[in-house]
Amino acid sequence: MMGTLHHSGWANAGMIASIVVAATVGDVLIASAMRQIGDLDDIKAEAGLLGAIKAVVTNTRFFCGVAAMAVSFFSLLFALSHADLSLVAPASASLTVVTNTLAGKLFLKENVDKRRWLAALCVCVGVVLLAR
Amino acid sequence: MTFRRYLVLAFVSVSAPLGDTFLDVGMKRIGPVSLAHITTLFHAVSTPWVGSGIVLLIGFFASYLTALSWADLTFVLPATSFGNVIVALLARFWRHEQISLSRWIGIFLITAAVGFVTRGPSLTEHEKPVAAPDAAEVCQ
After folding, report:
1. Is the pLDDT of residue A7 over 70?
2. What digits encode the pLDDT tens for the residues A64-78?
3. Is the distance from CB of B79 to CB of B114 less than 8 angstroms?
4. pTM of the model
5. How many domains does chain A have?
6. Which residue in the set B68, B83, B97 is minimally distant from A30, CB to CB?
7. Domain residues for B54?
8. How far is B121 from chain A (nearest CA, A)?
9. Is A118 in Cβ contact with B27 (below 8 Å)?
10. Is A119–B31 a contact, with Cβ atoms under 8 angstroms apart?
């Protein structure tokens, strides 16, 4: 059985924060890129799979998003070598939902209604419980 | 939302936690990585567990991109949070990590949040900008 790793709360919070910030920047840039490109199912129907891949990989905003996601990924690897998966993975993923809800409202102009805000609140409380 | 699109969302939910768990197995075998030896992270990518985890995460990324092309970011991301339940189950029964009652409640709340969001519309319809009236029409 694997031994449980112990680190201070601040160290865990710092590692998780770096994952979340980079992931949010990446998600917003990629979502914005996909909105620019359009429905991939439609593109695939017209130009085939290669056409859909080409439409994605030739988008500059997409590559900026991928770069931010790469930073988030290596931050995740670093965090996993120091802390438990059951803390790092849910906490970073859930906090990313909250920050993305804000970013979706502010930058992508998505319709974030009461239902989505309530969901974000539930995720916040859930993350606090996860970190205990 | 078609059945095929729900399948894409389901794959998004399952592939990410499986990939994370594979990464966890690989990184725990390598051991703690210090900032002084940060290049060890690049070596880790070539190990079987971390490599398999990356393949799963690439599958996740492809399906995630597909979903984002026909749904809002704030719709797709909470749907992926269901993966936290799968992570907890994998961590508990495969990695033998201890999951406390408070963590289980936290996971339940996150899953409930996903339920709220997925009951709403998947895509925000943005109104097309109204063209400015022609100067000649205004004069008339």
Report:
1. no
2. 999 999 999 889 888
3. yes
4. 0.70
5. 1
6. B68
7. 3-119
8. 9
9. no
10. no
